[in-house]
Structures are given as C-alpha cells and as structure tokens.
Amino acid sequence: MAKSLSGSTSTALILFAHGSRDPEWAQPFRRIQAAMRIRRPGATVKLAFLEMMKPTLDAAVSELAACGHARITVAPLFMAQGAHLKNDLARILGAIRADHPQIEIALLPAIGETEAITNAIADWLVASTTS
Length: 131
Prior knowledge:
- There is one protein chain.
- The chain is an alpha/beta fold.
- About 40% of the residues lie in helices and about 20% in strands.
- The chain has helices at about 25-40, 55-65, 85-100, 115-130, and strands spanning about 10-15, 45-50, 70-75, 105.
- Helix 2 (about 55-65) packs parallel to helix 3 (about 85-100).
C-alpha cells in the first residue's frame, strides 16, 4: 500500500493550483511539492491544475485511486475562496466523489486564507519595506 503523510498507508496529498499557458508559472508549486517530499519522505504528493495544465484534479485522483490510496487531501494553492473554489472546485469534487465513492477526499482551505500564510506574507512585507 501507499505511504501516507502521517507514515501509515493509503493517504495522498494533491496540491491544486489554477494553471497557466506558461509552463514556468508552475515552478513555485513544483518547489512546494519538492519541499513536501523532503519534509515527508515517502509521502505521495501530486500537483493538479484547474485548467490549461495537466494533470487535472480528476486525473490525479484517478491515478492515486489506481495506486490504492483510500484518502486524499486536496490543498488549494489559491489566495482566496473565489468563484473557482466555490463553484468550479465544488462541481469537480462532486463529480470525483461520484466516480470514486470509495475514496475519502478532504479539502483544505485556500492557502491564502490560513493564518500562517497571511502572517508570513505580512512578515515578508514588513522586512521588505523597512529601511
């Protein structure tokens, strides 16, 4: 079975981002994926995109399900809970859950809505603007 984020079996993490026509746009997300793999050796961490890039979220979930993952956490790498997350992601997850009823899918909040991230951004801004 697949190793989880906590060291047990069958859990995976999907980093979910918007996507772009420019392939270089995804580099920060690939760095987050690489950092997660260093911090959690053996963890399954995938990238998925809403549009313009592959894999899509449903393709990533299907791949993870085929590998035996019973639990998947989706981490939206969006600054806020806008229409893409409220409408598009809700619709996509509904279809995925219907196609894979055996998979438990947890959804984290938009990364920009977490206190740790907003504090890190504020700290960076203070450090960047202090003379």
